[in-house]
Amino acid sequence: MKLKGILQNMPDFKSSRAEIQQFPYALPPEVWEKVFSNLSPNDFLAVINTCHEWRELLRPQRTATLLPLVLPILLNTIDLNLHDVLTWREVSHGAKFVVEEFWKSVFSSSQTHFDTLSKQCWSSVHEDPELRFEKAQNLLEKVTCCYTFQDYFGIQDFLSHVNPRSLNPAKSVMHTQLMSNYIGLTLAEPSPNNEMEAVELDFQKQTQLSLLNSQFGYNISALSINLTHYTIINCWAVHFVGLLEHVPNLKILRLSGYVAYSEDKRLLAKKFPKLNHLELLDIENYREDRKTKVSLTRQLISRYGPQLLSLICGENLLFHVDRKVPNSGLPNLHLLLFKNINCGALNLLSQMDWPLESLQLQVNEGEDHYVRLGNFFKAVNKFGPTLNHLQLAVHLDQLVGQVLLNQVNRMTMTVCPSVFKLTTEYSNICTSWWWTLVQAKFPNLVELEVHMDHASKWDMIFPKMAFEKMSKLERIFISCATPPRGFPHRQRITRRSIKQGKRVRIAATTVITVGRFAKNVTGLRERKKHNCLIV
Amino acid sequence: MALVRVISSDGAAFLVSQRLAKRSGKLKTEIETFRKSSDNSEAQPEIRIVTIRAEILRLVLQWLQQHQNDPVLPANQNEQDGRGDAEMGQSQWDRDFLAPMDLGIVMELILAANHLEVKGLLDITCKLVESKITGRTVDEIRTAFKLKSDFKGNEEEQTRLENRWCVEN
C-alpha cells in the first residue's frame, strides 16, 4: 500500500523541468527517512550537502552517521590511548570497522614495518611524535604484546577467553575478525625428558595452533614466529608450512630463532600454500645450519621470492640464496634492509639486478674494518638506476681502504640519478671526501638526513656547505640523540631559511639564527658555551 | 587584489582574496592548477567544492580570515619543524567561535578542514570532539553521538571479550 502511495506521488517524467526540480519534496518526509535509512556515511554527507530540506530531515542521525568519517581523522590527529580506542570499538559496528582498518594500516603495512626497523639502527633513535605511525607506536607495542603468545598455554588461554566454545573441536568454528591482524607466537621445543609427555604436548600444540589459525587465520596479515632455545625438531619446518595454510592473507612474515636440524627431505616434498599477498619477509634473526641444503629460508625464497617486495635480512641470507637462479629468485625486491653487512654480502649485492628503491646498509660497530670501501660502493652502484632512498648506517671513514680524493672519481663512475634522499651518520659528513663523493654520485639529492649521537657534535656549519655544493638540495634534517638543552631531537633546515637568515625559534632560551653563517669558528665555540648558537 | 571564487556544494559563491584562500592547502593547489591550465593570467579562478555546503564553508573562511596572519602550519606533519601545537594555543576568539556550534556542525567542520587542509582549524575542532570521546564509557559516547548499537549476532559480546583480553594483558 505504501509503495502504491509513493508511485501516485511520483511526478510524470515527461513533465516540465520545473516539476522535476520539485521532485525531492513530492514524497512525504517519513518515506524519505526510510529511503535514507541505509546510506553509507559518504552518501549521507552528499545528501545533507545537497538541500536544506533533506538536511533538516536527517539532522537527528547526523552525528551518528558521520562518526565513522570523523574517527579516522581523529585517530591521526589526537594522542591515542589504548583504553579509548578499545572503547570506540564497542560503540557501534561502523566505529569498530574504522578502528580495525586503522590497526590494519599500522600492522600490515610493509612500508611501516620497514621504516620502523630501518629507524632502529641509527645512533640517534628517538620518538618522533609527528610521524603518523609513531603516534600509534605506543599503542602498537601494547596491542602487539596482547597478541604475542609465549607458549601454547597462552593460546589456549586466549581462545577460552574470546570464545569459550571454540575449545571444543566438535563445534564448527566461525571466522572471527581479530582486532590486530597480527599474531606473534613463541614456540619452544618439547622437553626431551619424557618422550610420552613430549608427544602429548606436541599434539596439544598442533591442536591449539590450528584452532587459532582456523578461527582467525583469514584475518591475519602479519605473523611473527619466534623459536626459543636451540631447536632441533626435525619436523619444525614441515609443521611451519602446515601453519601457513591457515593464513592465506598473510602480508608480513617474520621468523626468528636458531634452528639446527638435519637435512629434512620432507620439506622438498611439501607443497607450500599460495600466499598471494605476502610481500615482506623478515629473516634477520633467523639462523639455520649453514650446511643444510634444504633450508627453510631457501625454500621460502624459492617459493615466494618472485612476489616479495621487501626483505629484511642479515648475512645469513648468503648461505641460503640460490645464486644459480637469476637475481637469486627475488626479481621484484624494492626495499632491502641488510644488517651486519660483510664483504661476502657486498659481493652478492653487486651481482644482483634488483629494482631496489630503498636500501639500508648496516655494519655492526667494531666490524667496520672487515669491509672494504671499494666493495661497498660497488654494491651501491649496482642499484643506481632505481634507488630513491639510500641509508648508510655505516661509518665510512672506518672502513678499510680510506679514500683519497683522487680515488673518489673512480668510485663515483656510476651516478645514481634517482637518489633524492640520503640518510647517514654525521661522522661521514666530516670526512674530507664526502661532498666530492656526494656531488658526483647523487646530483639530484633533495633531502639529507644526518644522525648524530652526541650534542657536542652539534655544529651547523655543514648545512650551508651542503646547500652550496648540492644545487637541488631543499632540506636537511638533523637528528640528535642527546641534543643541547631545549633543542628538538629533529631539526629541519631549508635552503630558504638559510637564505633569509630567518631566526628559527627552538626553545625559549635558545635561539639559532640560520643564515648569518659563522664567520669564524672561534666565535661559534664561544657562543656555544653560553648555550646559544649563532650559525 | 587577486580574488578567487569558491563555490559550495549548494551553489553559494564566496569571493575571497587569493592570499587568504592559499592558506588552505587544497585551495592553494587548485589555484595553482588553474593558473597552469589557463592562458589568461588575469582570469579569476573559480573553485567548486562539492563536499562542503555554504554554511560550513562560510565558517571555514571566517576562521581563515581571523587567523590570516598566523604562521601556516605545514599540512604534512613530517615537515613540521619542531613547533608543537601547544605553542599555538587556542585563542579566546576560537573558543567563542566554537562555543555556539552543536556537535554535528563541529563534525562537519572537521571533515571540511581535513578536506581543505586547514591544519589549525582541524586541530581545534578535533580537540573539541576529543573531549567528548576520550575517557568516556561506551554509553556516554553513544549518548553524545545519538548512536544506537548496530552490532549483529554475538559481535558485540565478542568485541567486549576481546577488549577485555587487551586490557587484562
TrEMBL record, chain A:
Organism: Orchesella dallaii
Start and end residues of each F-box domain: 21-67
Source superkingdom: Eukaryota
Alphabetized CDD domains for the sequence: F-box_SF
Xref: InterPro entries: F-box-like_dom_sf, F-box_dom, LRR_dom_sf
Database matches in Pfam families: F-box-like
Protein name: F-box domain-containing protein
From TrEMBL, chain B:
Organism field: Orchesella dallaii
Entry annotated with the keyword Cell membrane: no
Record pathway: Protein modification; protein ubiquitination
Family: Belongs to the SKP1 family.
Pfam families membership: Skp1, Skp1_POZ
Residue ranges of domain SKP1 component POZ in the record: 4-69
Protein name: S-phase kinase-associated protein 1
Domain SKP1 component dimerisation: 119-166
Keywords: Ubl conjugation pathway
